Structures are given as C-alpha cells and as structure tokens.
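This part of the workshop introduces the protein records we will be handling. A record pairs a protein's sequence with a compact description of its fold. Backbone structure tokens are a discrete shorthand for how the chain folds in space. The question running through the whole workshop is how a given chain folds. The record below serves as our worked example for the rest of this section.
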Amino acid sequence: MKATDKDAPEPLKLADFLCFAVYSANLAFGKAYKPMLERLGLTYTQFITIVALWETDNQTVGSLGEKLFLESNTLTPILKKLEAMGYLERQRDPADERQVRINLTKSGRQLREGHPELSLADATGLAPEEFGQMQKAIVALRNNLIRSTKSAE
C-alpha cells in the first residue's frame, strides 16, 4: 500500500527551527547594538569581553574564555586588540607564569560611565519580569545543549 500525501509528514519550515529563532534573534541584537558599539569603536565580542571584565577584573585568559564560551585562540587576538586600544593590560601571573592575567585600565573602566544604552532591555519590548524569564530560559537552553554535547562525546 502506498502512502498518500495525507500520510506524509509536514515539511519542516525554517520558522519551525528553534535554532533559527535564536540565531536570528542574535543577529537582531547585533543590529540593535551596532550604533552604540560603533560610537565606542568596539565589536560585539570586544564589548562582551569588557563587560565580563567589569564584572570580575584580574581574570586569567582561561577563566575569561570559559565565561565568554571562547577558546583561547579566539580570545587572544581580541585581548591583543583591546590592549592596543588601551582598554586592558595582559601580564603573566607572578605566582604561575603559565597563566596570563587580564586587567582593565582606567580607560577600560571608564567605558561603562555615561552609556545608559548598554542594556537593550527596553528595545526587546519585554516587561521586566518577562525579560528575566526569557534570559533564564535561554541560559537553561544553552546549558542543556552544552550538557548534551558533552554526554555524546
């Protein structure tokens, strides 16, 4: 017996993919941040690196990479560029020469001042409680995906 068209599964549409919704939302965030980042002379990855250092200064390259989900071979050129721009300093840890510590300079800390647009919470159109729920749900999604790829290895 032949399957009829009625029995065939619905073809998947791009809009049905959660991964595409997250990917396209990330692109939309990039566009929303672009004017502010251009004024600061930063890329998005440079910006989140500085934000992570505002949160915890004097980090090792390894701990910063873990926080940003970046490998050191990706992070190091970003750090070199930010150092050349005068926003941070890299130096070997005197207690462990294998480690490189990252510290913001005065200029790196001052980037935070006078920039209320650093948060796009209003641009999302979400109420504060919805914003928090969305952020927690996306973090849970990311963590679940990371866990599933580690268990598959």
Remarks:
- The chain is about 55% helix and 10% strand.
- The mean pLDDT is 90.
- The beta strands are 59-60, 88-93, 96-104.
- The two ends are 41 Å apart (CA to CA).
